[in-house]
Amino acid sequence: MNDRIDKQNSIVNRIVDGSVKIDSVAEFENLLKAFPKDPWLHRAFADLLKREKSFYVAADTYRKSAELFIEADMTLQSIVSKIHEWRIFKPSYQEGEAFYSALHKSKSKETGIPRFFIKMTHPEIIAFMKELMPRHFPPGSIMKKFGDEENNLYFVVSGALEETIYHRIEKGGRVQKETTKNLVENDFFGEIYPFEEENVSRSAIETITRVEFAEISKSSLMTTCRKYPNVQSLVEGLYESRSESDNKGSLRTVRKRVRHQLPTQVNLKFFPDEPDKAPLDVDGFTEDLSLDGARVVLSKDFKSGHLETLAGKNVKIRIYLPAAFVSLSILGTTAWSKSFPLPGNTTAVVGIQFKNMTNTDRRLLQSYYYGSEGEQNLIWSLWDSLMGK
Fold first, then answer.
1. I need a labelling partner for 57 at 20 to 30 A (CA). Which of 43, 68, 312, 331 fits?
2. Is 263 in the same domain as 209?
3. Number of C-alpha atoms within 13 angstroms, CB side, residue 239?
4. How far is CA 269 from CA 75, 278, 298, in A?
5. CA dihedral 95, 99, 105, 107 (to 10 degrees)
6. In this structure, are 274 and 362 located in the same domain?
7. Residue 108, Cβ neighbours under 10 Å: how many?
8. Chunked in runs of 10, what are the mean pLDDT values of the chain (389 residues)?
9. Residues 272 and 375 both lie in one domain
C-alpha cells in the first residue's frame, strides 16, 4: 500500500474501512457506552440496525451521528447521516429547518465542501440532498479510467483513493503519467463543470481503502442548478477553489488522524478482586484517547486467555506523552474487552473509562490533543520502532 497512507490502527477506522465487522447489536452497544461521542461508531451502528431492519432505532442513531458530526465540524459527514435518516422516515419541514440551522453552527465553513453546503439556502440544500446518493466501494475498486466519460460528481465521505493524472503527448497519440495524488474525506472528483462541455477523464482513480461517496449525477445537478441558480454559482466556486489549490502545486496526501487518535504508549495495571493477588501488568498503545477514556491495543506478549476476565476490573493507566516528556497516571474501569482477528495475528483491545483525573493531568491531556506536524511525526516514529513496519 502507498506509504503515505496513514496506518489504520484504530478499531473505529477498522470498522469504518470494513476490515473489522461487528454484527452484534450488544457489542456495538458496549462500544458506545465506552465512547458515546464517537460519530463514526454511531454511524456504523445505524448501518447495522438498518440491515437488521430495526428502522426506528436506526433513524434515531443516524440522527445522533449527524449531531455528533456537526459537533466535530464534519459538515459532509453529517449531511450523509441525515440522508440515511431521512430515507427511512421522510422529514417534516421543521426537521429540515432545524438541521439547516444546526449546520450553520459548524466552524469549518470557510472553504471547500463545507462552504459549498453552508452557503446554500434551506430549500437549496434540501433539494440537493434529495439527489445525493451515498455509495460504498471496497479497496482496489477502479472508480474511473483515463478517457472515461465524466457523468457524475463525487464527494468523498470517508476513506482514501489514489488519483493518477495523465496527459497526451500528441493529439490522438500515446499518454504519459503526469502526477499522482491522494484523495481523502472532504475532497471531490468528477469533471462535469462547465455543464455545456462533454468532458472525458484525464485521470484514473482507484480506492486504497474502503470508501464512501456521496454521488450526484450531472443531469440531476443540472436540473437542480436550473431551479436554483445560486447552486450553480457555488458549483463554479467549488471547481475554481480546487483549480487554485492545484495551481499552487498543493499535493495532498492522506492526512494523519487528529492527535487524540495517534498511537500513544501506555502501561495498564489491572487490579484483581482478591486483595492478596498481584495486579496484572500489561503494556500497550492507545487507539483513541479522550478526557473520558481510551481504547488500548494490548502488547503481543499479553496472554489472550486473560481477556474475558478483564471487563469490570479497576485499572491504573499510565500514559506516556512523548511530546511533553511526561507520563500521567489515571484510575479507571475496564468497560469492555475484545479480540480482533487480523491476518496472521489476533489483537486484544480493551476500553477504559476514566474515573478520577487531577486538573493538572486534564490540562496536560487537553494540550496533547494539539501539536505540530513534527511532534506527530515523532509519535509515528516511536510507533514504527516499537511495533515494527
1. 312
2. no
3. 14
4. 40, 9, 12
5. 170
6. yes
7. 15
8. 36 64 81 82 93 95 95 93 96 94 76 88 96 92 89 92 76 64 88 86 86 94 96 92 60 41 79 83 83 82 74 88 67 84 68 82 66 42 43
9. yes
Give residue 214's domain range: 134-247
Residue pair 189/205 in contact (Cβ under 8 Å)? The answer is yes
Measured CA to CA, the distance from residue 134 to residue 216 in angstroms comes to 9
- Give me the CATH number covering residue 311: 2.40.10.220
Residue indicated by cell numbers 450523509: 80
Rg of the chain, C-alpha, whole Å: 23
pLDDT tens per residue, range 106-135: 765 566 888 899 999 999 999 999 999 999
Cβ pair 294, 266 in contact under 8 A: yes
Q: Distance from CA of residue 169 to its chain's centroid?
A: 39
Q: Is the residue at 118 inside a domain?
A: no
Cell representation of residue 378: 515523532
User: Among 37, 110, 118, which residue's Cα sits nearest to residue 75?
Assistant: 118
pTM (predicted TM-score): 0.65
| Cell numbers placing 77 | 459527514
Contact 188, 243 (CB under 8 A): no
Nearest Cα residue to 150 out of 186, 118, 189: 189
Question: Whole-angstrom Cα distance, residue 87 to residue 134?
Answer: 11
